[in-house]
Amino acid sequence: MDNLTRDQRRKNMQHIKAKDTSIEVKLRKALWKKGYRYRKNYNKLPGKPDIVLTKYKIAVFCDSEFFHGKDWEVLKPRLEKGDNSEYWVSKIARNRERDDEINKKLLFEDWTVIRFWGKDIAKNVDECVGVIEEAIWDIKLQQE
Fold first, then answer.
1. Contacts of 4 by beta carbon, 8 Å cutoff, 6+ apart
2. Rounded to whole angstroms, how far apart are CA atoms 79 and 101?
3. Global pTM?
């Protein structure tokens, strides 16, 4: 794996932010520039979505690949070989379960849920905005 000591790793992990991450800010700026207004870290909804377009009932989550278990079938075996594997496997597995539960709750309340991986936002923010715009158009069509 890497050559960090436990203390160095701990310090790194403590500096990971829960809100206003670079990927969230990048997506928010792109939406704002296009004229979309939103709420951020909206605590009136399950899961406190990173970006919420209340007018259209769209909840957007900006998920980091590691903490939300992207490519879980590949990541899990790697974690099992690493330090503190029990902790990390159960933590990320629980995060994935929670993501599913939140999606279901929001869908049940007639919200559109959109989840982006961090690297997708970083590399293709315009495509991510396009996905949100498509959802807005679909909702507008349903309202007619």
1. 12
2. 24
3. 0.85
